Amino acid sequence: MGIVCAAVVVGGALGVGTGQDGGDRVAEDEQVASRGELTAIAGMLDSGSREVSLRAGGVVEGVALTWSVDGRPGEDLSHGLPSEPLRFEAEPGALVLFNVQNYEGVSSPISCEIRVDGIIVAFGEADGPGAMAACEGTAS
User: Fold this and answer.
1) How far is CA 46 from the centre of its chain?
2) 68-110 confidence digits (pLDDT tens)
3) Has this prediction a pTM greater than 0.90?
4) Which structural domain range is residue 13 located in?
């Protein structure tokens, strides 16, 4: 495993100037990322697990949900949409699959959405009897 370093500058280039006293200093008009911003960025660069959430949209009854997160399959054939997103932890780079399917005889728009650490990485929609909204993404 290698070491990753990043420098972030907000609002302009990082510059070092010479003050009147002859010492080096960051120019007053330059904005440098705060310690909190650098900590947040370092958290994104680490190799820890990712939060995956699966959201289904459509009619309340008449749908089947199937998913696979990092090779772990699951399904909910209870004929209804969950009131809250399904949540999982996954390793970076894990494959995430999510399908929302209308049962035969149910003709309603449906959708699927995959979020990783709160960011939408996949969205799909479909309409009609037996239609399937399919999403595929990576937990990176």
Assistant:
1) 15
2) 999 999 999 888 888 899 999 999 999 999 999 988 888 889 9
3) no
4) 1-46
Dump pLDDT digits (tens) for 38-68: 444 445 555 689 999 999 998 768 889 999 9
What is the residue whose two structure tokens read 């960051």? 26
Burial of 21 (0-12, 13-18, 19+ CB in 10 A): exposed
Domain at 132, CATH number: 2.60.60
Q: State residue 65 phi and psi, 5-degree precision.
A: -115, 135
68 and 4: one domain?
Answer: no
Q: Which two tokens stand for residue 138?
A: 């990576």
What is the identity of the amino acid at 7?
A: A
- What dihedral do alpha carbons 130, 59, 135, 54 form, nearest 10°? -140
